[in-house]
Amino acid sequence: MTAFHTHPDPILPYGGRRHVHPHLFVQALRLREVSARYPGSSAPAVRGVSLEIPEGTLAALVGPNGAGKSTILKAVAGLLPVSSGKVEVYGLSPGGCHHRTAYLPQRGEIDWRFPVSVERMVLGGRFVHLGWFRWPRRSDFAIVQRVLERLGLTALAHRQISELSGGQQQRVLLARALAQGADLLLLDEPFNNLDVETRADLRTLFAELRNSKKTLLIATHDFDRPEEEFDLVIRMRGGVCEPEGAPA
After folding, report:
1. Among 67-76, 198-207, 217-226, whose mean pLDDT is lowest?
2. How does residue 3 score in pLDDT terms, banded at 50, 70 and 90?
3. What is the pLDDT at residue 232?
4. Which of 169, 139, 186, 25 is nearest to 90 (CA)?
5. Which of 148, 202, 22, 30 is nearest to 97 (CA)?
6. H/E element holding 53?
7. CA–CA dist 7, 26 (Å, integer)
8. Residue range 92-100: average pLDDT?
9. What residues contact 187, with CB distance under 8 A and at least 6 apart?
């Protein structure tokens, strides 16, 4: 698989966030007794979650709807502040090295009526490497084209996202995350609305990413035997992690 290279450190990054180089010889992701709640809710969505994921690991967050899987991904991505505990991404707080983390939300969280083409939406994954006064360069477009080709989206590049099927939309979201060239990918239910052939292709792609030292944390409820597919399986229910060896 061709590596998706990124630009050097961003200049004047979006959102006022300052780039900090990651610490060496640390876990890709570490959560220590993390609890988090959504605005307006008195009850935490996750409570006391602790986990460690080494670099180059294909990990799964497994559990039913409402187990807290999406909450964990949003906390790691810096989209939801934690109410207690600590999140470390390559030894830093979320956002400290934000261009190294890519988050793929569930398809239902996106407004697919927005008037943008597939190519332009995937190109959005490159913006984290740019400053306020920099336009995407030829190398950015080249990365986008490689990602579109890898996910079988080249023929749809100029189609409006509103015209896509559910499975095509799911692949576009994944393409946008891959175009960012991140080292840690947070994928929320990436297998939804995909046929058997496309799911198999994604499994191959995820294995390729892991072999190139990317770290993937995938929230899913689609696997009967996730231990056969993933290096690490974290089971969640009711906002907490179940002990290792708990029945499926």
Report:
1. 217-226
2. very low
3. 94
4. 25
5. 22
6. strand 46-53
7. 23
8. 78
9. 73, 104, 174, 177, 216, 217, 218, 219
> Phi then psi for 48, rounded to 5 degrees?
60, 40
Question: 139 is written with which tokens?
Answer: 């190398």
Query: Which residues lie below 8 Å from residue 222, measured CB to CB, with a gap of 6+?
Result: 189, 191, 192
Burial 77-104 (b: 16+ CB within 10 A, else e): bbebebeebebbbbbbebbbbbbbbbbb
pLDDT at res. 46: 96
- For residue 83, the one-letter residue type is S
Residue with tokens 């499975």: 167
Domains and CATH numbers, the chain: 14-111+183-241 (3.40.50.300)
The answer to whether the beta carbons of residues 175 and 151 sit under 8 Å apart is yes
Q: Which residues of 45-73 are buried (b: 16+ CB within 10 A; e: fewer)?
A: bbbebebebebbbbbbbbbeeebbbbbbb
CA distance 126 to 179: 6
Q: List the one residue out of 184, 188, 154 whose CA is nearest residue 168.
A: 154
Backbone angles phi, psi at 77, to 5 degrees: -75, -10
pLDDT tens digits, 37-92:
999 888 999 999 999 999 999 999 999 888 999 999 999 999 999 999 999 999 98
Q: Compute the radius of gyration of the chain from its Cα atoms.
A: 18
Please tell me the number of Cα atoms within 13 Å of 137 on its side-chain side: 10
Q: Where is pLDDT greater, at 184 or 131?
A: 184
